[in-house]
Design a protein that fits this description.
β3 and β4 form a beta hairpin. The chain is of the alpha/beta class. The chain is globular and about 45 Å long.
Protein backbone atom coordinates (compact mmCIF):
# COMPACT_ATOMS: atom_id res chain seq x y z
CA UNK A 1 0.00 0.00 0.00
CA UNK A 2 1.47 3.44 -0.91
CA UNK A 3 2.60 5.39 2.14
CA UNK A 4 0.28 8.36 1.62
CA UNK A 5 -2.76 6.08 1.23
CA UNK A 6 -1.79 4.10 4.32
CA UNK A 7 -1.55 7.28 6.37
CA UNK A 8 -4.91 8.52 5.14
CA UNK A 9 -6.49 5.16 5.96
CA UNK A 10 -5.02 5.32 9.46
CA UNK A 11 -6.66 8.70 10.04
CA UNK A 12 -3.49 10.66 10.70
CA UNK A 13 -3.74 14.22 11.87
CA UNK A 14 -1.65 17.32 12.23
CA UNK A 15 -3.48 19.41 14.77
CA UNK A 16 -2.61 23.00 15.45
CA UNK A 17 -1.37 22.84 19.01
CA UNK A 18 -1.77 26.53 19.69
CA UNK A 19 -5.01 28.27 20.47
CA UNK A 20 -7.67 27.26 22.97
CA UNK A 21 -5.62 24.75 24.90
CA UNK A 22 -2.70 27.09 25.49
CA UNK A 23 -5.01 29.99 26.27
CA UNK A 24 -7.25 28.10 28.69
CA UNK A 25 -6.86 29.56 32.21
CA UNK A 26 -7.50 26.24 33.97
CA UNK A 27 -4.53 24.08 34.96
CA UNK A 28 -3.76 21.43 32.33
CA UNK A 29 -5.14 18.05 33.30
CA UNK A 30 -2.49 15.82 31.76
CA UNK A 31 1.09 14.67 32.10
CA UNK A 32 2.69 14.08 28.70
CA UNK A 33 5.38 11.42 28.20
CA UNK A 34 7.75 11.41 25.23
CA UNK A 35 9.46 8.05 24.75
CA UNK A 36 12.59 8.42 22.62
CA UNK A 37 15.09 5.76 21.64
CA UNK A 38 17.77 8.38 20.98
CA UNK A 39 18.44 11.87 22.26
CA UNK A 40 17.26 13.66 19.11
CA UNK A 41 14.16 11.61 18.24
CA UNK A 42 11.42 13.62 19.91
CA UNK A 43 12.86 16.85 18.49
CA UNK A 44 12.64 15.59 14.91
CA UNK A 45 9.51 13.46 14.98
CA UNK A 46 7.35 14.66 17.91
CA UNK A 47 7.57 18.41 17.52
CA UNK A 48 6.03 20.97 17.76
CA UNK A 49 3.86 18.83 20.08
CA UNK A 50 6.62 18.62 22.69
CA UNK A 51 7.23 22.36 22.57
CA UNK A 52 3.54 23.10 23.07
CA UNK A 53 3.31 20.68 26.01
CA UNK A 54 6.31 22.27 27.72
CA UNK A 55 5.02 25.83 27.38
CA UNK A 56 1.56 25.14 28.71
CA UNK A 57 -0.38 22.21 27.34
CA UNK A 58 0.73 19.79 30.06
CA UNK A 59 1.08 20.04 33.79
CA UNK A 60 4.35 18.14 33.41
CA UNK A 61 6.27 16.98 30.35
CA UNK A 62 8.46 13.91 30.77
CA UNK A 63 11.16 12.88 28.29
CA UNK A 64 12.34 9.27 28.59
CA UNK A 65 15.42 8.44 26.51
CA UNK A 66 15.85 4.68 26.53
CA UNK A 67 19.15 4.10 24.73
CA UNK A 68 22.37 6.05 25.09
CA UNK A 69 22.43 6.80 21.37
CA UNK A 70 26.10 5.84 21.54
CA UNK A 71 26.37 4.33 18.01
CA UNK A 72 28.39 1.44 19.38
CA UNK A 73 30.91 3.58 21.26
CA UNK A 74 29.55 2.75 24.71
CA UNK A 75 31.23 5.22 27.06
CA UNK A 76 33.92 5.90 24.45
CA UNK A 77 34.97 9.35 23.37
CA UNK A 78 35.39 8.65 19.65
CA UNK A 79 38.61 10.68 19.58
CA UNK A 80 36.89 13.82 20.88
CA UNK A 81 37.05 15.63 24.23
CA UNK A 82 33.97 14.03 25.83
CA UNK A 83 32.09 10.73 25.60
CA UNK A 84 29.67 10.76 22.69
CA UNK A 85 26.68 9.68 24.79
CA UNK A 86 27.17 12.64 27.14
CA UNK A 87 27.27 15.02 24.16
CA UNK A 88 23.94 13.62 22.96
CA UNK A 89 22.44 13.94 26.44
CA UNK A 90 23.68 17.52 26.62
CA UNK A 91 21.91 18.23 23.34
CA UNK A 92 18.61 16.89 24.67
CA UNK A 93 18.92 18.74 27.98
CA UNK A 94 19.82 22.00 26.24
CA UNK A 95 16.77 21.71 23.99
CA UNK A 96 14.45 21.02 26.92
CA UNK A 97 15.76 24.02 28.86
CA UNK A 98 15.37 26.16 25.74
CA UNK A 99 11.68 25.27 25.54
CA UNK A 100 11.09 25.66 29.27
CA UNK A 101 12.82 29.05 29.30
CA UNK A 102 11.01 30.33 26.20
CA UNK A 103 9.63 33.38 28.00
CA UNK A 104 11.78 33.67 31.11
CA UNK A 105 15.30 33.56 32.52
CA UNK A 106 17.14 30.31 33.20
CA UNK A 107 17.01 28.72 36.63
CA UNK A 108 18.67 25.78 38.33
CA UNK A 109 18.11 22.12 37.58
CA UNK A 110 17.92 19.14 39.93
CA UNK A 111 19.81 16.04 38.79
CA UNK A 112 20.32 12.72 40.53
CA UNK A 113 20.01 8.98 40.16
CA UNK A 114 16.67 7.60 41.31
CA UNK A 115 15.63 4.00 41.84
CA UNK A 116 12.71 2.53 39.90
CA UNK A 117 11.88 -1.16 40.07
CA UNK A 118 15.29 -1.70 41.65
CA UNK A 119 17.19 0.16 38.90
CA UNK A 120 19.23 3.33 39.22
CA UNK A 121 18.31 5.83 36.49
CA UNK A 122 19.63 9.32 35.85
CA UNK A 123 16.85 11.90 36.25
CA UNK A 124 16.89 15.65 35.59
CA UNK A 125 14.14 18.00 36.74
CA UNK A 126 13.83 21.48 35.24
CA UNK A 127 10.76 23.69 35.74
CA UNK A 128 7.77 21.62 34.58
CA UNK A 129 9.94 19.12 32.69
CA UNK A 130 11.55 15.87 33.76
CA UNK A 131 14.14 13.99 31.73
CA UNK A 132 15.33 10.40 32.08
CA UNK A 133 18.35 8.69 30.52
CA UNK A 134 18.29 4.89 30.80
CA UNK A 135 21.51 4.57 28.78
CA UNK A 136 21.08 1.04 27.43
CA UNK A 137 23.25 0.38 24.36
CA UNK A 138 22.28 1.69 20.94
CA UNK A 139 21.10 -1.36 18.98
CA UNK A 140 21.92 0.00 15.47
CA UNK A 141 19.20 0.36 12.83
CA UNK A 142 18.80 -3.38 12.25
CA UNK A 143 18.65 -4.25 15.96
CA UNK A 144 21.67 -6.56 15.93
CA UNK A 145 23.71 -4.41 18.27
CA UNK A 146 27.39 -3.45 18.04
CA UNK A 147 30.54 -5.48 18.68
CA UNK A 148 31.99 -3.06 21.26
CA UNK A 149 28.83 -3.18 23.40
CA UNK A 150 28.46 -6.93 23.24
CA UNK A 151 25.76 -7.02 20.55
CA UNK A 152 23.20 -5.90 23.10
CA UNK A 153 20.03 -4.35 21.74
CA UNK A 154 16.41 -3.79 22.67
CA UNK A 155 15.29 -6.00 19.80
CA UNK A 156 17.47 -8.89 20.89
CA UNK A 157 16.20 -8.50 24.46
CA UNK A 158 12.56 -8.48 23.32
CA UNK A 159 13.09 -11.54 21.13
CA UNK A 160 14.88 -13.47 23.89
CA UNK A 161 18.19 -13.64 22.00
CA UNK A 162 19.81 -12.14 25.09
CA UNK A 163 18.49 -12.43 28.64
CA UNK A 164 19.78 -9.11 29.95
CA UNK A 165 20.89 -5.66 28.83
CA UNK A 166 23.13 -3.32 30.82
CA UNK A 167 23.38 0.46 30.82
CA UNK A 168 26.64 1.51 29.17
CA UNK A 169 27.76 3.41 32.29
CA UNK A 170 27.34 0.31 34.46
CA UNK A 171 24.54 1.88 36.50
CA UNK A 172 22.13 -1.06 36.17
CA UNK A 173 21.19 -4.23 34.31
CA UNK A 174 17.72 -5.19 33.11
CA UNK A 175 17.06 -8.91 33.38
CA UNK A 176 14.69 -9.58 30.51
CA UNK A 177 12.12 -7.55 28.59
CA UNK A 178 9.55 -7.63 31.38
CA UNK A 179 12.05 -6.08 33.80
CA UNK A 180 12.60 -3.15 31.44
CA UNK A 181 8.85 -2.73 30.88
CA UNK A 182 8.13 -2.80 34.62
CA UNK A 183 10.75 -0.09 35.13
CA UNK A 184 9.13 2.17 32.54
CA UNK A 185 5.76 1.52 34.14
CA UNK A 186 7.16 2.60 37.52
CA UNK A 187 8.48 5.83 36.00
CA UNK A 188 5.13 6.61 34.39
CA UNK A 189 3.25 5.96 37.64
CA UNK A 190 5.64 8.16 39.62
CA UNK A 191 5.60 11.11 37.21
CA UNK A 192 1.89 10.91 36.51
CA UNK A 193 1.05 11.34 40.16
CA UNK A 194 -2.59 12.33 40.55
CA UNK A 195 -3.07 13.62 37.00
CA UNK A 196 -6.19 12.19 35.43
CA UNK A 197 -4.82 11.83 31.92
CA UNK A 198 -1.47 10.49 30.78
CA UNK A 199 -0.51 11.15 27.18
CA UNK A 200 2.08 8.72 25.81
CA UNK A 201 3.94 9.79 22.66
CA UNK A 202 5.72 6.99 20.76
CA UNK A 203 6.93 5.96 17.33
CA UNK A 204 4.34 4.37 15.05
CA UNK A 205 4.58 0.56 15.08
CA UNK A 206 2.47 -0.04 11.96
CA UNK A 207 5.02 -0.77 9.24
CA UNK A 208 2.51 0.10 6.52
CA UNK A 209 2.62 3.76 7.56
CA UNK A 210 6.05 3.91 9.23
CA UNK A 211 8.15 1.51 7.14
CA UNK A 212 11.89 0.88 7.51
CA UNK A 213 12.20 2.62 10.86
CA UNK A 214 15.14 2.23 13.24
CA UNK A 215 14.86 -0.87 15.40
CA UNK A 216 15.45 1.17 18.57
CA UNK A 217 12.55 3.48 17.69
CA UNK A 218 10.19 0.55 17.32
CA UNK A 219 11.38 -1.36 20.38
CA UNK A 220 11.17 1.77 22.55
CA UNK A 221 7.58 2.29 21.39
CA UNK A 222 6.76 -1.35 22.09
CA UNK A 223 8.23 -1.14 25.60
CA UNK A 224 6.33 2.06 26.34
CA UNK A 225 3.03 0.68 25.10
CA UNK A 226 3.56 -2.53 27.06
CA UNK A 227 4.26 -0.42 30.15
CA UNK A 228 1.03 1.59 29.93
CA UNK A 229 -1.19 -1.29 28.74
CA UNK A 230 -2.69 -1.92 32.21
CA UNK A 231 -3.13 1.78 33.04
CA UNK A 232 -6.36 3.72 32.73
CA UNK A 233 -7.01 7.04 31.00
CA UNK A 234 -4.03 6.98 28.65
CA UNK A 235 -4.02 8.77 25.33
CA UNK A 236 -1.57 7.16 22.89
CA UNK A 237 -0.09 9.27 20.10
CA UNK A 238 1.80 7.38 17.38
CA UNK A 239 4.29 9.34 15.24
CA UNK A 240 5.74 8.57 11.82
CA UNK A 241 9.53 8.65 12.17
CA UNK A 242 11.97 8.01 9.30
CA UNK A 243 9.15 7.56 6.78
CA UNK A 244 8.17 11.21 7.29
CA UNK A 245 11.06 12.15 4.98
CA UNK A 246 8.95 10.75 2.11
CA UNK A 247 5.98 12.96 2.97
CA UNK A 248 5.42 16.64 2.18
CA UNK A 249 6.05 19.37 4.72
CA UNK A 250 2.83 20.04 6.62
CA UNK A 251 3.72 22.44 9.43
CA UNK A 252 2.73 26.08 9.30
CA UNK A 253 5.41 28.76 9.67
CA UNK A 254 5.18 29.06 13.45
CA UNK A 255 5.19 25.31 13.98
CA UNK A 256 8.15 24.85 11.66
CA UNK A 257 10.06 27.60 13.48
CA UNK A 258 9.50 25.83 16.79
CA UNK A 259 10.57 22.45 15.48
CA UNK A 260 13.61 23.86 13.69
CA UNK A 261 14.75 25.96 16.64
CA UNK A 262 14.54 23.06 19.08
CA UNK A 263 16.51 20.82 16.73
CA UNK A 264 19.14 23.52 16.18
CA UNK A 265 19.57 23.97 19.93
CA UNK A 266 19.91 20.20 20.30
CA UNK A 267 22.79 20.16 17.82
CA UNK A 268 24.39 23.14 19.54
CA UNK A 269 24.41 21.12 22.75
CA UNK A 270 26.18 18.25 20.98
CA UNK A 271 28.72 20.62 19.41
CA UNK A 272 29.39 22.17 22.81
CA UNK A 273 30.85 18.82 23.90
CA UNK A 274 33.06 18.55 20.83
CA UNK A 275 31.10 16.09 18.67
CA UNK A 276 29.98 16.58 15.09
CA UNK A 277 26.43 16.91 13.81
CA UNK A 278 24.61 16.53 10.49
CA UNK A 279 22.36 19.57 10.29
CA UNK A 280 21.82 19.62 6.52
CA UNK A 281 20.73 15.98 6.24
CA UNK A 282 18.22 16.08 9.08
CA UNK A 283 16.91 19.55 8.25
CA UNK A 284 16.20 18.58 4.64
CA UNK A 285 14.71 15.20 5.55
CA UNK A 286 12.52 15.75 8.61
CA UNK A 287 12.10 19.36 9.71
CA UNK A 288 8.74 20.84 8.69
CA UNK A 289 6.89 17.53 9.02
CA UNK A 290 4.79 16.03 11.80
CA UNK A 291 2.50 13.08 11.12
CA UNK A 292 0.76 11.11 13.83
CA UNK A 293 -2.44 9.34 14.77
CA UNK A 294 -4.24 9.69 18.08
CA UNK A 295 -5.65 6.76 20.01
CA UNK A 296 -8.01 8.05 22.67
CA UNK A 297 -8.56 6.26 26.01
CA UNK A 298 -10.88 3.27 25.70
CA UNK A 299 -12.82 4.39 28.78
CA UNK A 300 -13.99 7.94 29.43
CA UNK A 301 -11.79 9.86 31.83
CA UNK A 302 -12.88 12.19 34.60
CA UNK A 303 -15.55 14.63 33.43
CA UNK A 304 -13.34 17.66 33.91
CA UNK A 305 -10.63 16.16 31.70
CA UNK A 306 -13.13 15.13 29.03
CA UNK A 307 -14.55 18.63 28.92
CA UNK A 308 -11.07 20.15 28.74
CA UNK A 309 -10.04 18.18 25.69
CA UNK A 310 -13.39 18.61 23.98
CA UNK A 311 -12.65 22.33 23.92
CA UNK A 312 -9.13 21.89 22.54
CA UNK A 313 -7.87 21.41 19.01
CA UNK A 314 -6.72 17.84 19.63
CA UNK A 315 -9.39 16.41 17.36
CA UNK A 316 -8.88 13.36 15.16
CA UNK A 317 -10.43 14.97 12.11
CA UNK A 318 -8.44 13.47 9.27
CA UNK A 319 -5.27 13.97 7.30
CA UNK A 320 -3.65 17.39 7.04
CA UNK A 321 -2.76 18.52 4.48
Amino acid sequence: MPLARAIMTAGFVLASLTGTMAADSRPPAKVSFYFAAHEDDWQLFMNPSAFEDVIGNAARTVFIHVTAGDAGLGIGWGGRKHPFYLARENGAETAIRFMADADTSPTGKTASHMAFNGHSIYRVSYRSTVTYFLRVPDGNPSGTGYFDTGFQSLRRLAEGAIDKISAIDGSTTYHGWNDLVATLQAIVAFERGQATLAQVNVAELDSRINPFDHSDHLMTARAALDAVAPLGCVRRVHYVNYASSRLPENLNAQQRDRESSVFAVTLAGVLALDHGVAWHHYDRSYVGRSYYRVEEPAVACHAATTEFFASSEWQNTGLVP
